[in-house]
């Protein structure tokens, strides 16, 4: 069974926009606990791929499985998020007027309104989980700071923390280190390596230095299909990849 041991199985996925194939018979298998990087030139289909996984875009054909049993093509965006797939967009979207702690508090799985959940008393267990995530994203000392006063990188870490509050099994991250300082990029690499194993991560990234520092497995997308897969060294030495990137 191809789904055994995979957190994500995509087979023969195609997505067309007015006859243009943004994804073209794409196959992708991500193992449980894996840290996978997806690279590829602009227009390769990376965003469409994440949209299919999160249910934002329905594939015209193909199969998409989360774990061994959940058919993503039959689930709504909300159901997919609740099932354990968390997505982080490139631009951080935190509640700027609220403190770091309150942002994490709001991100906890809850069906209460924003105001009701800020008024509700936290259980000891919930408080512990927030402290744990604060330590993971290294924002313990900024816990009472309004999120609007954080640096760009810290806002990104807070948003990752907000995703972690939902206990996702699979995290999708879109260009996480764009605009970060070198130190923030280094911390992100260390953080992702720490999260892998316990979670599975799929990272779309242009920064090859960063890709090289985190991923043992890289997938190159081109024209909506997988062009190459392997270690960064392997794919960077691949003739077809060189052609696509250098236009030779
Ligand atoms: P990437 O994220 O790798 O840059 P995208 O997934 O955004 O690539 O886009 C793949 C291709 O599909 C591009 O040529 C893009 O113009 C096209 N595309 C993406 N979304 C739409 C849409 N909603 N309507 C029409 N074309 C789209």
From TrEMBL:
Family matches, as Pfam families: ABC_tran (PF00005), BCA_ABC_TP_C (PF12399)
Position of the signal peptide: none
PANTHER family for the chain: CONSERVED COMPONENT OF ABC TRANSPORTER FOR NATURAL AMINO ACIDS-RELATED, HIGH-AFFINITY BRANCHED-CHAIN AMINO ACID TRANSPORT ATP-BINDING PROTEIN
Keywords: ATP-binding, Nucleotide-binding, Transport
InterPro entries the UniProt entry points to: ABC_AA/LPS_Transport, ABC_transporter-like_ATP-bd, ABC_transptr_urea_ATP-bd_UrtD, BCA_ABC_TP_C, P-loop_NTPase
NCBIfam families: urea_trans_UrtD
Name used for this protein in its record: Urea ABC transporter ATP-binding protein UrtD
Alphabetized GO MF terms: ATP binding
Residues forming coiled coils: none
Limits of the ABC transporter domain: 8-248
């Amino acid at each position: 069974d191809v789904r055994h041991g995979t957190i994500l199985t995509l087979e023969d996925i195609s997505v067309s926009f007015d006859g243009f194939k943004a994804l073209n018979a794409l196959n992708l298998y991500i193992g449980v606990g894996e840290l996978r990087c997806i690279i590829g030139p602009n227009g390769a289909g990376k965003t469409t791929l994440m949209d299919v996984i999160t249910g934002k875009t329905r594939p015209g054909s193909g199969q998409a499985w989360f774990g061994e049993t959940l058919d993503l093509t039959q689930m709504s965006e909300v159901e997919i998020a609740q099932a354990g797939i968390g997505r982080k967009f490139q631009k951080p979207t935190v509640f700027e007027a609220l403190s770091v702690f309150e942002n994490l508090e709001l991100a906890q799985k809850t069906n209460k309104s924003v105001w009701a959940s800020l008024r509700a008393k936290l259980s000891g267990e919930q408080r512990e989980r927030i402290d744990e995530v604060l330590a993971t994203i290294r924002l313990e000392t900024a816990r009472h700071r309004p999120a609007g006063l954080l640096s760009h990188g810290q806002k990104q870490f807070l948003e990752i923390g907000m995703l972690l509050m939902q206990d996702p099994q699979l995290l999708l991250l879109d260009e996480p280190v764009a605009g970060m300082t070198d130190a923030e990029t280094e911390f992100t690499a260390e953080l992702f390596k720490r999260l892998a194993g316990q979670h599975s991560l799929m990272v779309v990234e242009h920064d090859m230095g960063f890709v090289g520092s985190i991923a043992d497995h890289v997938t190159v997308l081109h024209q909506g299909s997988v062009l190459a897969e392997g270690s960064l060294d392997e794919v960077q030495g691949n003739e077809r990849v060189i052609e696509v990137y250098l236009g030779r």
